[in-house]
What we know:
Elements: H1 3-15, E1 22-32, E2 35-46, E3 51-55, E4 58-64, E5 73-79, H2 90-98, E6 102-106, H3 124-138, E7 146-156, H4 158-166, H5 176-182, H6 187-194, E8 216-222, H7 231-234, E9 242-247, H8 259-265, E10 271-275, H9 289-294, H10 296-299, H11 307-335
Amino acid sequence: MKLAAMIATVLTLFAAPAFAANVGFEEVRITNGDEPPLTVGIWYPTDAPATQHPLGYFTQTVAPGAPIAGRDLPLVVMSHGGGGWYDGHYDTALALAHAGFVAAAVSHAGDTFDDQSKVLQLWRRPAQLRRLVDYMLGEWPSHERLDAGRVGAFGFSNGGFTVLVAAGGVPDLAAIAPYCEAHPDHNLCQVLTHAGVDLHLGQGIPADAWVHDARIKAVVVAAPAFGFSFGRAGLSGVRVPVQLWRAAQDHRQPDPYYDEAVRADLPRAPEYHVVENAGHFDFLPPCSARMSQTMPEVCASLPGFDRAAFHERFNADVVRFFQARLDSSRSAETDTP
């Protein structure tokens, strides 16, 4: 390592607020061109006292609107699954903020719990994620506390698809129709058929409809939707480090058409985790009692699977990956003559 890179690493260690006592939180709305504003949740390190506050179906211990602690902070933007909301991975966001990251999650307009009018206009999602990065690095009141050279992205299901595109992937949605003709019993195909969606909707979508973001230096992808739609050529542009997660009992996205398809076609081998006895929704946080009553299909795990214990390990691995990969990307840039 060159001297400049060593100095940068030392400065990073002193700048990172690993000592920050708590997590600050705010919900903001950001402009999105001619469309209505996007709703975003932001978690960040703070030394202010934290108390319990409701967040949708969940409760989180945060300091709303508190001052941010630290400088040169890495940023992780987050993309939820289909029909979700920005709070869908709040526990992972909290873990990142406790570790000295700023985590910002967008509610994808047109693919949320209260509006799925544009759920299969998948090209909208990466554009919204890029808009979030623009906001965080240039408009957020604390943007000067961020390190623009250390930006990561996290995504689950439709969000996993989203961050693969943001990292350089180009899917072919025309692959959906032949996939469903071959596998009409698969969950995706049944859902689309029941909704009366034209399975040929992907034909004619130009490659430049898929928005990439070179500022993203590493991605965590859990149970990516439409994994079969990329292929080797479609993932050839994904050159950043990838941490990829598969639930071994994911019957909504059956192996090998989703996670395994992505793993096999990435140009660089990802850090790959297969979670035994886990189902698709086990990547979502443990449910509250009220959520379990309202959405039992999302909250039920297989017998013997401890979702709370899994999330402790999962969040720790996500934090470790981003710490290692975003710091290494910074060192590589510093090493460049």
